Structure prediction request, 254 residues.
Amino acid sequence: MLRVTSARRRAKSSTSAERIGWDEIFDAGKSGWDSIVPFLGVAQLLARESSVVVDVGCGRGSIADEHAGRVFHDLRGPGRTVIGIDLDPVGESNPIIDEFRPIDASLRWPLEDASVDLAVSDFTLEHVDDPAAFVAELSRTLRPGGAFVGRTISRYSPLSVTARAVPNDKHARWLKVLQPRRQERDVFPTRYRMNSDRDLRSLFGAGFELNVLHRVGLEQYLLRWPRLARVVMALEPRLPRAAQMTLVVYARKR
Prediction:
């Protein structure tokens, strides 16, 4: 995940505009375990081979709030169009897409059949009510050979287990404690219906080549307590894979 550096390191980075890339790439303690490198690095690489990129569940682009001018999630570029789709019309204000298209109550994506080269989804799958409909629409809109890159929360991580024990209407209150800078409008109900290896392999089936990576990231919710965050950062890689916080999903349509 992106915000892993201390306030001092972030300040240093902000005054060094010539620095290339995000700090996790160059941090030996992070690059092998954190999800940002396999998620965003691969998304950027595949975007270069794509004409049409779709950000599924694009939201308002809140990542741009804190990282203005250095938003590595921005997949726009010459020769490609990035389309954001979301059930929430707030996606219209997303600053890192070329075009927004709302998803209506039918859950049909506002995209033509076989029109998409690359679909990306960052921490959206945990909110999906109907996983089968999601994968059906992904399959319909991706061209043969097109790809999906997603990042989500493992249903067996301590974060997910805790979240499922707390009613959805209380999530914003608890996240305000863990992540004070996170706005309530960016907190959504969680479902965790496609958030394990077994779930994903069953849903994607024979129509896709599928690879699921397990990565850490729990310390992101503990940055207010640096010592605790460091302990969790050291311990989480030793947990069983399914209990590590993040899943990175690569799927390519056959």
Summary: The CA atoms of residues 117 and 146 lie 5 Å apart. The domain at 31-63+79-253 is CATH 3.40.50.150 (Rossmann fold). The beta strands are 52-56, 81-86, 99-102, 116-122, 142-153, 208-215, 246-253.
